[in-house]
Amino acid sequence: MRYVRIVKWTKLLPADALTGSFQTAQAEYLYGIYHGQWIAIREGSVCEALPDESTAGQIAAISLCQNPDAKRVLVIGSGLGLCYELLRLPQIETISWAHCDNEYVQEVNKFIPPRLKITDKRFHRLAGDVRSLLAKKRQYYDLVILNLPDATNSVLNRYYTRQFYRQVKETLRTNGV
């Protein structure tokens, strides 16, 4: 099994950068350190990189341009690097992070090096079905960032429906984006 993991990993990164793996009901995640970044790979693509100042910084800047006064933010999908960058801003009161693989939210922190873990009290991991979580937070967020991969399976398809976007809209406060 280790050989299979190395083959998957080396399609993107050198074998010596692979540190380990963990499994959820939805997927297997491979992780390691490469050029000072902690990287997690799922299904042949990078799903997390910490720190990720470049890409995460761009997403944060584009999102905040649409609502510069945002204080309460929800990030759905791969986005620990994005949460990390947003937490650098003093205006942010709370950031909630949900993932389409709710076990990932619960497990990933065990494998991130201590120096890269998010320990800020404003950061909240939301474990559970994203749709159910949205139903509990009506008119709460100023900004919702969907950082999802393409809809390549039935698990992801449910996040690309009118019903889901309606649910997201209902979580937004007045002038929320």
TrEMBL record:
InterPro entries listed in its UniProt record: SAM-dependent_MTases_sf
Single GO BP term: polyamine biosynthetic process
Keywords, sorted A to Z: Polyamine biosynthesis
A Pfam family this chain is assigned to: Spermine_synth
Entry protein name: PABS domain-containing protein
